[in-house]
Amino acid sequence: MKKTTMPITLVMMALITITSCRKATEDAVPVPGSVDKATYLQLSANGVQLGQGQLYALVSVNNEQGQEVVSNKKVSLDYIQGVYKTDRITLAKGSYVLSKFIVITATDTAVYAAPKSNSAKAALVSKPVSIPVSITETGVTAAAVQVLKVDAADSPASFGYTVDDFGKIAFRELSVKLMITVGQAVYDSLPGKLVVDASSTGSQHWIREIELQEGVTQIRVPESYETVSFQVAKWNTIAQKTLSKTELGITTQLHLTAVSQPKLLVEESTFIENAAGLVPDTRTEYLYNANNRLSAIKFYQKQLQSSNLPLTHQYQFLYNGAQLDTIKRFNPDNNTLTGFSGFTYAAGKITTVSNSSYDQSTHVLFDYSKLNSQQLISANYLFHNGNSMTYTMQFRNGNLVADKAISSTGSGESSEYQYDSYINPKHQLGYPDIFLSNSSKNNRLLELKIYSGGFPSVIPYKTEFIYNADGYPVEEYVNYKGYTSQQHAYRIKKVYRYQ
Known about the structure:
Helix content: under 10%
Radius of gyration: 28 Å
Distance between the termini: 30 Å
CATH topology of the largest domain: Porin
Shape: elongated
């Protein structure tokens, strides 16, 4: 079974008129579980009352050796099913001790706290911190923490904490944005774990772990310390900056930047999940020249007459300077030319593509414009049989977020897309096709489509990824359902290998 994606569906409609499609499956197929095998800790704060706006928790966790593996991590605290719960905190399987839990407002002021053992208020709760926590299963491990209200007359020491812990110091607000450049692509406004370390000449430290959100994150740092360092470790690179007390006083926006060397995608394997397990379906090899430019692609595909994945066709990439000039397509013997794609450019952008495959040809004309923060691309297609298609694309932040295709046969298709915040290896290839399919810098998670005049038998409805430490997907799982039945049909697994 093969995936049909936009605008391939419309191309088929432009070539032949599609009026009906069969059901994807007759019997319901069980929906597979999530591929997320990570382990998390989620804490419930018993004793917090409603009506105080957005709350957060400062959390510290030690491992069995007494080492602090979570240090003053600031996490959201939300009211869920009758109790305040923290965001999930990623922790490996093992035994831990919760050593700090303070409920704070958006201004970092303590409003509730879990008393520490041997503090004056420890006797007022049944389990003061330190609280043992054991994580043994995949998914979320829940643990409860009993907190007491912090009154104006309460001293931080009565809970076992410091003045800094309770936010009784002067702060300065900063807007923080993380940006990492990978090859020619800039990944800006990234999420990541920010570690803030404010230090004084007396070796005093104020440390916070803050989860940066996509976009810009507002944070607060103390004004009284001599230096403040900011560091994010992401994709095997480090973005960091240190400000003196004087520099902090004149800073409102902080951009943390880093550069990561791109990885070369060398193999992509596809498997179909069914009752028999994982069945190999396709394999694609990517080869590069001495300049790390794509030089060839070899395609292997399952065939009825073979138990293996035989080579079915090959692409050869030819360049004119830095620009891709021609893609030639060959039979498995690499001698018989079966087609080609030729490109022309203006101001570094593709303006025309002439595509030939056996006795069929397609000609495309691209036009570029801008609307506010979006880049618009309009493409006009003329097919060998005289039919045509217009295809408009809207890009935002380097990703295709919406498109619309209308064919001369009357068929139409419009879509909206959502993405993750990781690196799309296909974008790094520098391999355009007639639909600019590899133009998005992030990986697609969701697509919502509306069809007219015809529709595919199956559509994707959920995509999940497993990523490596460099920010690239190593496994991709795409779930498909019948378009008319809305029942799960099958799942495709893709495995990526890099050099």
